[in-house]
Design brief:
The complex is a heterotrimer of chains A (321), B (224) and C (390).
Chain A (H helix, E strand, L loop, with lengths): L7 H30 L7 H38 L9 H5 L4 H28 L6 H27 L10 H5 L14 H20 L3 H28 L18 H24 L5 H29 L4
Helix pairs in contact in A: 1-2, 1-5, 2-4, 4-5, 4-9, 7-8, 7-10, 8-9, 8-10, 9-10
Chain B lengths: L1 E12 L2 E13 L4 E5 L6 H8 L7 E6 L2 E2 L5 H11 E4 L11 H10 L5 H14 L15 H13 L5 E5 L7 H16 L3 E6 L12 E6 L2 E3 L3
Parallel strand pairs in B: 3-8, 3-9, 6-7, 7-8
Antiparallel strand pairs in B: 1-2, 1-4, 4-5, 9-10
Helix pairs in contact in B: 3-4, 3-5, 4-5
Chain C lengths: L4 H12 L1 H38 L3 E7 L2 E3 L1 E2 L1 H7 L5 E12 L5 E7 L4 H11 L4 H6 L2 E4 L1 H9 L5 E5 L5 E9 L5 H4 L2 E5 H8 L5 E2 L1 E5 L6 H11 L3 E5 H39 L3 H12 L4 H33 L5 H6 L16 H27 L8
Parallel strand pairs in C: 5-9, 6-8
Antiparallel strand pairs in C: 1-2, 1-11, 1-12, 3-10, 4-5, 4-11, 6-9, 7-8
Helix pairs in contact in C: 2-10, 2-12, 2-14, 10-14, 12-14
Classes of the chains: A mainly alpha (321), B alpha/beta (224), C alpha+beta (390).
């Protein structure tokens, strides 16, 4: 125990996570019994009960999804506010890397949200049909989501209990800055190549969506997400901060930058998640214009927002950073 | 309109099957008026509720307007019931504390219809059931006959083709029962398919075309 | 929304059932009110302290003797000025003067000839004639001090008793221009040399030395250099102070929050039982809805919107009441409990600060507990068999 557990945000966060864990545990057993005993052609009262339980599960999933999304934002905010009491940290970047669990936790959170979003989409399609065609599949997806929640709860505890307040952590300039000329970018890219890739992939995604090419969309989307991460941290971010040396994925979520980071990362993940879900249900022979529209909109918003910061800086100062 | 094949409904008590409905076969044509006759406990209400999709059979096939109603998932069954079937209950089953106009609107709401349209339709249905002058009254302020007409308005609001009535005159005096039969006749003339489950002898002398199906101890008496 | 029949029915239903909800809404509002009040108070105090902290220098250099802060020699100033990267090195003399057992004021000595400190003081000194102020032993007093002195019939001057037992007569020059009562209610501003006398410091002694280091990546470096100047030197950074404040209020707020969560858990349990014992009347109504064509999903939607409405209603009501209670009425009763013991009597009113994080914290705690506990009971009602209507 340390001062961390007296922080309001931490207490509220852990409380909410604990409630969600209990609900997930309950849902877990219900989901298992659906996977084991579901038989739509049976008239038995057991089957009727299971049909009702599937409504409970989708209700719980909606509840979990909504809260997990809210709590993700809350978590990021919490991490940022903890930088005051953790020595050395200037923003969330330092706090999240206080131990090795932090990044995994953040990553698992994102995958959990994606899984539940996938479940809710499948559930919607399933209920529209007359014979529960996706029931088994969606129940497996839900099971995966619930297991991810258990993992997340474990990581929550592992992460927060292993933050040592006496050991200074690194700040973002140490984590993301160029150390002795080493290139932080993947595949030996430089900034110019990175940007070319970024815009090329953007156009490719739009094209493959228009052509309804599922596989190409999935590949380009995932590549784009990876490239975008680096592009935002090492290039676009510096325009948000208006400082060529400030490279950090977290600082842009602070008040000084009008919380714009939430929007930047939000649109990126929205494009990635909805795009991938569109691909997955496409492979199951379902079409969704809505999903496609959300993907394109988020993508265009994300790219325009990033580009706008660069252009704005250029028009204001007449030079690039 | 309604096609029932080899329908069974039983409960298992101590491993023994207790049949409520036993091997029912019944065909009801569009526009027909069927009086389901039988003493209480004969299974007529269960049969009616299976046709309405309120209850599930243990085995057999029930087709209503071509839909296998007993095997529809809840979402489809519900919207089917909202659009295609109107039900008049024995004890009216109006929502307390809600005006007749709003009560009549209830079946439309789930389909996501606009409020203005819903209100207009409810108004029309109340007019059709001859109760529009009491549209703003709540059930507690109404007599049995008036409640009955409110319930009819609710059953008609989505303009369904199939009207199911469960003991409609059980809580009414003779005058109101006769007026109900009059309404039934009008609905029959409009071409609605009607099924009435009743043991009221008033229905034995209807002055319009109808068919009497008798049910006894879970089985149809005579040919279906 | 206006033309949505579903929302129309939802409001209809809420109005119809209002008597059933009154109890739940009352308790919910009370619980939200309690949490909001406490969080509003603590975030307001935190905000004010941080506000004063912004004006504070980056570093404070103190002299430690026997683990206690003791006066520091002013020759240290010259050594510090020589460190590269250090800006705005200021000599500081201040301390508390106890008029009697109960009342004390903060005496601040100011080097009026120093340009930097002058700039800072410009705001409170705007209408003071410096020449005549410095010509005699004069002081500027805050409103609180002025009231105290007046009530003890000191209208033109006051005789301070120095630690060595001598009297030091100082004229009351003017009351301070009070803008934020929080900062200047109980302070006395006088020239540096005079403050040294009143506080019993020698001529070459200071309370501490303040300095700024504009480049924050050099902080650790400079801190090490300052500490190596003298064995007895202690360096306090702004971040240390911020952390200390943070922990102080986390401790109080956190303890409260943990207790509060236990109350919330009890409330959840009651709510769960209350919803599980759905009346037969309620079951009947759901059965009717289901019979006339509502799906399980529709009923779930109705019931959840109903509960979400209750949560939002209680939240808005509870937090608005807390706002009025804390920021307009000044939180009677609760203030003493919360500030009890701590010497923070300058908090007569709270600066209204309500940020999203506090509001979302309150909302999350409550919504998670409330909706989490009604989730399963609501579903149980929603899957009522429509044949129960027959």
């Amino acid at each position: 125990m340390n001062e961390l557990f007296l922080n309001n945000y931490v207490i509220v966060y852990l409380f909410s996570e604990a409630v969600l864990f209990l609900i997930a545990l309950y849902a877990f057993f219900k989901d298992i019994s659906i996977l084991r005993f579901w038989d739509f052609n049976n008239f038995s009262s057991k089957q009727l009960k299971l049909e009702k339980q599937s409504y409970l599960l989708s209700t719980i999933a909606t509840f979990i999804f909504t809260l997990k999304l809210t709590l993700l934002i809350y978590f990021v905010y919490m991490i940022d506010s903890l930088s005051i009491i953790i020595p050395g940290a200037m923003c969330g970047a330092g706090v999240i890397s206080a131990n090795s669990y932090g990044m995994s936790l953040l990553f698992v959170k994102l995958i959990t949200i994606f899984t539940f979003l996938l479940f809710l989409t499948l559930n919607n399609l399933d209920l529209k049909a007359k014979n529960y065609p996706l029931l088994k599949f969606k129940s497996w997806v839900l099971l995966a989501g619930l297991l991810l929640i258990f993992l997340e709860t474990y990581l929550d505890i592992a992460y927060l209990f292993n933050i040592d307040l006496s050991v200074p952590v690194s700040c973002c300039s140490a984590l993301f800055g160029n150390l002795e000329g080493a290139n932080p970018l993947p595949f030996g890219l430089d900034i110019k190549m990175l940007l070319i890739l970024y815009y090329t992939l953007f156009v490719s995604i739009i094209l493959s969506l228009l052509l309804d090419n599922k596989l190409l969309t999935a590949v380009t989307l995932i590549l784009f997400a990876v490239i975008s991460y680096y592009a935002v941290v090492y290039f676009f971010g510096t325009y948000i901060y208006e400082l060529p040396t400030h490279k950090c994925p977290f600082c842009m979520m602070q008040k000084e930058y009008y919380y714009i980071g939430y929007f930047v990362w939000g649109t990126l993940f929205s494009a990635l998640f909805f795009g991938l879900i569109w691909v997955i249900i496409g492979l199951l022979k379902y079409e969704s214009k809505v999903l496609k529209r959300i993907t394109v909109t988020s993508l265009v918003l994300f790219v325009s927002l990033c580009s706008a910061y660069v252009l704005y800086y250029y028009f204001k100062n007449g030079v690039f950073l | 309109m309604v096609k029932i094949e080899n329908l069974n409904k039983f409960y298992e008590i101590d491993g023994q099957k207790q049949y409520v409905l036993n091997a029912i076969n019944l065909n009801i044509q569009k526009g027909e008026c069927v009086i389901l006759k039988g003493v209480s406990g004969s299974g007529k209400t269960t049969l009616l509720s299976i046709i309405a999709g309120l209850d599930k059979p243990s085995s057999g096939k029930v087709l209503v307007d071509g839909e296998p109603i007993s095997k529809l998932p809840d979402m489809h069954l519900s919207s089917f019931r909202a659009q295609k079937i109107g039900i008049v209950f024995q004890n009216f089953n109006l929502l307390d504390g809600v005006s007749l106009a709003d009560n009549a609107m209830v079946p439309l709401i789930a389909s996501g219809i606009g409020l203005k349209e819903a209100k207009l339709k409810a108004q029309d249905a109340l007019k059709l059931a001859n109760i529009d002058h009491k549209a703003n009254k709540t059930p507690i302020e109404l007599s049995g006959g008036e409640k009955q007409r409110g319930a009819i308005a609710r059953a008609l609001v989505a303009n369904p083709n199939l009207i199911l009535c469960d003991e409609p005159t059980a809580n009414l005096d003779r005058a109101n029962s006769l007026s109900f039969i009059q309404t039934l006749k009008e609905l029959h003339n409009m071409g609605k398919t009607i099924i009435v489950a009743t043991h009221d002898s008033l229905f034995e002398e209807l002055d319009f075309e109808h068919r009497v199906v008798e049910i006894s101890q879970g089985s149809l008496v005579g040919r279906g | 929304m206006r033309n949505n029949s579903f929302f129309y029915f939802l409001t209809l239903n809420l109005l119809k059932e209002k008597r059933r909800f009154v109890g739940i809404v009352l308790i919910s509002t009370l619980l939200i009110f309690l949490l909001s009040s406490v969080l509003f108070i603590s975030s307001s105090i935190k905000h004010t302290l941080n506000q004063t902290l912004i004006a504070q220098p980056d570093f404070i250099v103190q002299n430690i003797k026997g683990g206690r802060v003791s006066p520091i020699k002013d020759e240290q100033v010259d050594k510090i000025v020589d460190i590269f990267g250090v800006k705005k090195v200021t000599k500081r003399v201040y301390g508390r003067y106890f008029f009697d057992d109960k009342y004390s004021a903060l005496i601040i000595g100011v080097d009026f000839l120093d340009e930097q400190s002058n700039k800072k003081l410009a705001k409170i000194m705007d209408s003071v004639d410096l020449k005549s102020f410095l010509s005699k032993d004069n002081m500027l007093v805050g409103q609180g001090v002025l009231n105290y002195l007046k009530s003890h019939y000191y209208t033109s001057n006051y005789n301070f008793l120095t630690p060595s037992g001598q009297m030091q007569k100082v004229n009351i020059f003017k009351a301070l221009n009070v803008k934020s009562s929080l900062l200047s209610n109980d302070i006395i501003v006088m020239p540096l040399e005079l403050a040294q006398k009143v506080l019993g410091l020698k001529e070459n002694e200071l309370t501490d030395i303040a300095l700024n280091v504009p480049n924050d990546s050099e902080w650790a470096n400079i801190k090490a250099k300052l500490e190596s100047l003298n064995f007895s030197t202690r360096v306090v950074t702004k971040k240390d102070m911020k952390k200390a404040y943070e922990n102080l209020f986390n401790y109080k707020g956190g303890l409260f929050l943990v207790l509060y969560l236990i109350v919330i858990a009890t409330f959840s349990l009651l709510l769960y039982l209350r919803y599980s014992l759905a009346s037969s009347l309620e079951r009947k109504e759901i059965a009717i809805l289901r019979a006339v064509g509502w799906s399980i999903k529709d009923v779930l939607k109705l019931k959840f919107l109903e509960n979400i409405f209750l949560v939002i209603f209680a939240f808005v009501l509870g937090s608005s009441l807390a706002y009025i209670y804390v920021f307009i009425l000044g939180a009677p009763l609760l203030k003493d409990i919360f500030l009890g013991g701590a010497n923070l009597k300058q908090f007569t009113t709270f600066t209204p600060v309500v940020d999203y994080s506090v509001l979302s914290t309150i909302f999350i705690v409550f919504a998670v507990a409330f909706l989490g506990s009604v989730l399963i009971p609501v579903w149980k009602i929603a899957v009522t068999e429509p044949k129960e209507a027959l």
